[in-house]
Design goal:
Number of strands: 13
Helix content: 10-25%
Shape: globular
Strand order of the largest sheet: 10-9-8-11-13-12
Radius of gyration: 21 Å
Strand content: 25-35%
Structural class: alpha/beta
Mean pLDDT: 87
Largest sheet: 6 strands, mixed
Length: about 325
C-alpha cells in the first residue's frame, strides 16, 4: 500500500462507499479499511459525514486509513438497531432545526428531542420555522406565538422563514456563512427548498407534502455535505420521523433542558429527577411559570423514554 496521507472530509456516506473531498477540492470515492470497522462498536456507522479522514491508495483504489479526532458529533438511536446509535454527522459548528407550524406540523416533543441531543453534545441550535407564508388562521398564528414564547426566552435564536416571500432568507444565509451547519427536521418542512433558494446551483430534489396525509415525502436518502459559494457548508440530513434519544442516564436529562439548570442545585435531593420527589425546585419553578409547562411535559416524556432505553440496553 502506498500511503500518501491525503487529508479530506467525508461529504457523503452510502454505507460501504464514502465520498471524500480533499483539501485541494478534488472529490473521490473511498472504502473503509477493514480493521477500522471495529473502532465504534456501539454505532451503526464508524464513519460519518463531517469526519476528517486520511486517505490511502492501493492499486488505484482509495481507502480511509485513519479517522481524525472529532470536535463533536450528534447521534440518534438507530431506527433499525434499538441497542445501537447512529452518528448523523460530526465536526459541527451549529445545528439548524427546520420546523413548520403547518403542512406538516412539527411537535414540541420532536423539537425538544433534537435540542436535548444537541445540548448533550455542545452543539448550538437555531430554530427555523419555515413556510411562514402558510400561517393565516388564528389557530396557527397562536401556535406560532406559543412556540416563540417557549423557546426564545430560554435563549434559542428563532427565525420565521419563507421561500415563497423570501422572509428572513438573507438572515439565515448570514448565519450559515463560514460555518459547518447541520440541517435537521421532519420530511416536508422544506429543507431542500431552503437550500436551493440559498444556493440555487445545488438544485436538490424536492417533493410536495402529501395532500392526503399532510406529511412530508422523503427526498434526501443519505446525509450529505454541500459546500456554499459564500463560505461554509451545510449537512443536509434525511427527514427524521422520530428522533429517539440514546445513551443518556435519567439523572442527566434535566441538565440538557437549559432553563432548568439554575434550579437543579436548589432541589432537596442531589439525585432528584424532578418527577415525584418532594421539595423539588424545578417543579416549583414550573408551578410559578418560570419554566414553561410544555417543556416540563416534554421533559417527563423524555425522562421515561430514557429510563426505558436503559432497561432495554441492560
Amino acid at each position: 500500500m502506498i500511503e500518501f496521507n491525503e487529508e479530506g472530509v467525508v461529504t457523503k456516506s452510502t454505507g460501504s462507499w464514502y465520498t471524500v473531498a480533499l483539501q485541494n477540492g478534488k472529490k473521490l470515492q473511498a472504502r473503509l479499511r477493514g480493521n477500522l470497522r471495529l473502532d465504534e462498536r456501539d454505532t451503526t456507522n464508524p464513519v460519518a459525514v463531517g469526519d476528517r479522514v486520511i486517505i490511502a491508495e492501493n492499486e488505484g483504489d482509495y481507502v480511509i486509513s485513519e479517522i481524525l479526532p472529532r470536535k463533536n458529533y450528534i447521534v440518534r438511536q438507530s431506527p433499525k438497531h434499538p441497542k445501537a446509535r447512529h452518528i448523523i454527522a460530526s465536526n459541527i459548528d451549529q445545528a439548524i432545526l427546520i420546523a413548520t407550524i403547518t403542512m406538516p406540523r412539527t411537535s414540541p416533543g420532536f423539537i425538544d428531542r433534537f435540542l436535548l441531543t444537541a445540548e448533550a453534545y455542545h452543539i448550538p441550535v437555531i430554530l427555523v420555522f419555515n413556510k411562514n407564508d402558510l400561517i393565516t388562521g388564528d389557530h396557527d398564528k397562536h401556535l406560532r406565538d406559543t412556540y416563540f414564547q417557549i423557546y426564545s426566552p430560554i435563549g434559542y435564536k428563532i427565525l420565521f422563514t419563507s421561500v415563497k416571500t423570501g422572509e428572513n432568507i438573507n438572515t439565515l444565509k448570514a448565519l450559515l456563512k463560514d460555518k459547518t451547519s447541520l440541517l435537521g427536521g421532519h420530511s416536508g418542512v422544506g429543507k431542500s427548498s431552503l437550500i436551493n433558494f440559498i444556493e440555487p446551483s445545488l438544485q436538490l430534489k424536492t417533493q410536495p407534502v402529501s395532500s392526503y396525509t399532510g406529511k412530508g415525502l422523503h427526498t434526501t436518502t443519505f446525509a450529505e455535505m454541500h459546500f456554499l459559494s459564500f463560505g461554509g457548508c451545510i449537512i443536509d440530513t434525511p427527514g427524521i420521523k422520530e428522533f429517539g434519544v440514546s445513551g443518556f442516564l435519567p439523572e442527566e436529562v434535566s441538565h440538557y433542558f437549559i432553563e432548568m439548570l439554575p434550579y437543579l442545585p436548589k432541589c432537596k435531593f442531589n439525585n432528584c429527577l424532578h418527577d415525584n420527589e418532594p421539595d423539588c425546585a424545578v417543579k416549583e419553578a414550573v408551578n410559578q411559570g418560570k419554566i414553561h409547562s410544555q417543556r416540563y411535559s416534554s421533559y417527563l416524556t423524555l425522562l421515561e423514554e430514557v429510563k426505558q432505553a436503559r432497561k432495554d440496553w441492560e
